[in-house]
Design brief:
Helices cover 46% and strands 16% of the residues. The protein is an alpha/beta fold. Helix 4 packs across helix 5, helix 4 packs antiparallel against helix 12 and helix 10 crosses helix 11.
Length: 425
């Protein structure tokens, strides 16, 4: 017999990744993510990576949580990436080695950055895995290494370099990370950590990573080469209250024993478990807020106090708007409002710091949104103009840009060669 009141599970949005199958685009999401979300009491809602979907995100409401996972490199123009340290040969080598990741997907960037910003604005629970953690950092004003191997690993002796990805051993690859004390990651893996080492072996698959961590975040784990492997916002972390903003560069969902679904450590599933807990709590909070206007009723004493405070503010507003002086008997009434303001506007140092961080996030989000908008407008204009051109005109443009690319490469190589000789001299 069906229940009259079926359980409505909270909705977690997950953006798909695009690939090609039989000469057609296909969208997909890793099954491990979907399984874990369902197992811990939420419903995954897949947001397809199709053109224009970033303008339709309101249609996916209500949103109780967002999980962002794998994908291509984020457009470096969205976070002012520094490419000056790379030679043309190095850039070409990176593109060749990581061809599936370096093909920028601007539509996916637009969708995921908008979702990340929405979560930050509303305090919607957010979990970012791999690329998802990078999206979160960029949305808050952080930056990324363009290639970890070129920018970090080469600084270490051959035997001490950390391998962050292994194309030949996707699921089986592991490297050590050091867990930071008294963080969620520490609590999840505490039964598997040795007190002196605080280390676990993690699965990772990435050639980029966090370079400058956004101000609001605190690291939870580091690789031996110093790369941040996990971070969170301590001011927005309380799963029981629906608060959860976190990024993990490694893949806890893939840390499983060979030919088994058993996890390497009991704490591997905790990120999803605690995230789902926050999602469920957020749903309850959201559902409850819809009825506050109808159910909230002050007792008689509180209602009297409210009316006195409202009266005080009303007198002050009237004095200001009419520029009149204070009338007899109004001083005591104005003091009530003054005392209320004094008691409710003082900020602690922690609150001031938090407000500054929130301000930085808002400014960075605005700048990021502006860059996205500019890129979209330029692309629309270019497509419109080119749609009116003939085949011959389009062929001429392709030939021109190909020639300009060759010229730029040759000039850049000459300048780099000259600079190298000057330094050597």
């Amino acid at each position: 017999m069906e229940s009259d009141n079926p359980t409505i599970f909270p909705r977690v949005l997950i953006v798909s990744r695009r690939t090609v199958r039989k000469n057609k685009f296909v969208d997909f999401v890793g099954e491990y993510h979907l399984d874990l979300i369902v197992n811990y009491g939420a419903v995954p809602v897949i947001v397809p990576r199709v053109s224009g979907i970033h303008t339709l995100l309101e249609s996916f409401e209500p949103i109780h949580g967002v999980l962002l996972c794998e994908g291509e490199d984020i457009d470096p123009s969205l976070y002012d990436a520094d490419l000056s340290s790379f030679s043309p040969d190095e850039i070409e080598e990176i593109r060749r080695l990581h061809a599936s990741d370096t093909a920028i997907d601007r539509e996916k960037d637009s969708i995921e950055l908008r979702l990340a910003m929405l979560c930050l604005e509303r305090n919607i629970p957010f979990l970012g895995i791999c690329r998802g953690s990078q999206v979160l950092n960029v949305a808050c004003g952080g930056s990324l290494y363009q290639d970890v191997e070129k920018e970090i690993s080469k600084k270490f002796p051959e035997g001490q370099r950390v391998v962050h990805m292994d194309y030949e051993n996707y699921d089986g690859h592991r490297h050590i990370v050091k867990v930071v004390d008294n963080t969620p990651l520490h609590h999840w893996f505490k039964d598997s950590l040795e007190a002196e080492k605080m280390e676990i072996w993690v699965n990772s698959y990435h050639h980029q990573g966090v370079k400058r961590l956004a101000q609001r975040f605190v690291p939870m784990a580091f690789a031996p080469d110093g790369l941040i492997e996990g971070f969170y916002d301590p001011q927005v972390y309380n799963p029981e209250e629906g608060k959860f903003i976190m990024g993990l560069q490694f893949h806890p969902e893939r840390m499983r024993q060979l030919n088994s679904d058993d996890f390497d450590y009991p704490g591997c599933a905790s990120a999803y478990q605690e995230f789902a807990k926050a999602v469920r709590s957020y749903q309850k909070k959201l559902n409850g807020s819809a009825f506050v206007g109808k159910t909230l009723k002050l007792d008689e004493d509180m209602e009297k106090k409210r009316k006195v405070i409202v009266r005080s503010f009303s007198i002050a507003r009237n004095m200001y708007s009419t520029r009149r002086g204070m009338l007899a008997g109004e001083e005591s009434e104005l003091q009530v409002g003054a005392k209320f303001l004094e008691a409710n506007t003082a900020l602690s140092l922690q609150q001031e710091k938090r407000l500054k961080q929130m301000g930085a996030t808002v400014r960075n989000a605005s700048a990021c949104m502006e860059r996205l908008k500019m890129n979209e407008e330029k692309e629309k204009l270019a497509r419109k103009m080119m749609g009116k051109m003939s085949i011959e005109q389009l062929s001429d443009i392709v030939s021109f840009y190909h020639m300009m690319g060759q010229i730029c490469t040759e000039v850049l190589e000459r300048k780099l060669h000259k600079l190298t000789n000057e330094i050597g001299g």
